[in-house]
Amino acid sequence: MIKVEHRPGSGSAPARYDLTAAEAARTREVVTQTLSHVESSEDPSLYRYAPLATRLLPERLLAFLHHFRQEEPAGACVISGWQVDDHAIGPTPDTWRTGTTRSRALADEVYLVLLSSVLGEVFAWSTVQDGHLVQDLFPVPGEEHEKSAGSSASLLDLHSEDAFSPLRCDYLGLLCLRNDTAVPTSYVPVDGLSLTPEQRTVLAEPRFVLLPDSEHLKRAAERGEQPPAPPRTALLFGDPASPYLVVDEFFIRTDPDDTQAQDALAALLRLLNDSQRDVTLAPGELLFIDNYRAVHGRKPFHASYDGRDRWLKRTSVTRDLRKSRAARTSATSRVVSTGLSW
Ligand SMILES: O=C(O)CCC(=O)C(=O)O
Ligand SMILES: [Fe+2]
């Protein structure tokens, strides 16, 4: 039996796992082996091969990730020990439409895809970065004040990823390539929020509307996709004693005359904001957020556009790809059409 290491950290900090030097070397070998099969992180063969490749990863790491998935011990975990070659990846881009050249960070993308594939299936939205399965997060000129991943000067309010859709990811993977100015990701686990029983009851009723964020809407309009009117939804669900949560501070609405729902929502948002903590990722650190058990966001920061800005790679992971089958063109497609997403 492998002993599962779970270090929950202090208070509600993410669980942590540090690859030993030997584990990091083993992981690098598996990534290098995988790279010989693929040209890009869009390559379907990467996703065919990933379930086999993951079995070759260090056992202690696999045990940790399975524990995180099965037992839900924490709202997030950080895995460190992967080395990013700062020179090899080149300058931080300022546009993600880079054409067909091989990514200079392909090894890092494959590392992210392999660890993501231990937790579930990687998928993407048609309306986010053209459906790329591994997305780039860096500040984009002109998007400074948006509420999207390319923003910088504006706060990314606390949110569940893709809160508007029941097809939202179970896990969000964020691999840091560069973060010279130590820009934090904000994070709050749902456990431990001191809501009253009355507030919990209201939040567990379908009295809230979660709207698609601006990134989805802008791209959906360009693609001629029309996201359907969002249904009313509950924000707390699952086990009432230890509920799952869906919320998006900026893109949520209630009926104007439902003051009970408004008050409960205000209390939830106040508690979330008061309990948030910073997770400042260093290059090579991989943060997995459990999108049912925690919300996240990002503090404002200054973008320099000098090739040294903060740069993360991102995946969305579902435990069940089948539930989005009606919104994908084939059983093997991993791109969910936003226009068909509920
Ligand atoms: O930039 C970050 O740290 C988080 C951004 C974010 O919310 C996301 O990628 O979903
Ligand atoms: Fe997010």
TrEMBL record:
Q: Which domain of life is it from?
A: Bacteria
Q: What are the binding positions for Fe cation in this chain?
A: 159, 161, 296
Query: Where do the TauD/TfdA-like domain residues begin and end?
Result: 255-315
Task: Respond yes or no to whether keyword Disulfide bond is given for this record.
Answer: no
Q: Where does 2-oxoglutarate bind?
A: 181, 310, 314
Which Gene Ontology molecular-function terms are recorded?
iron ion binding; oxidoreductase activity
Q: Which family does it belong to?
A: Belongs to the clavaminate synthase family.
Name recorded for this polypeptide: Clavaminate synthase-like oxygenase
Q: Which organism is it from?
A: Streptomyces clavuligerus
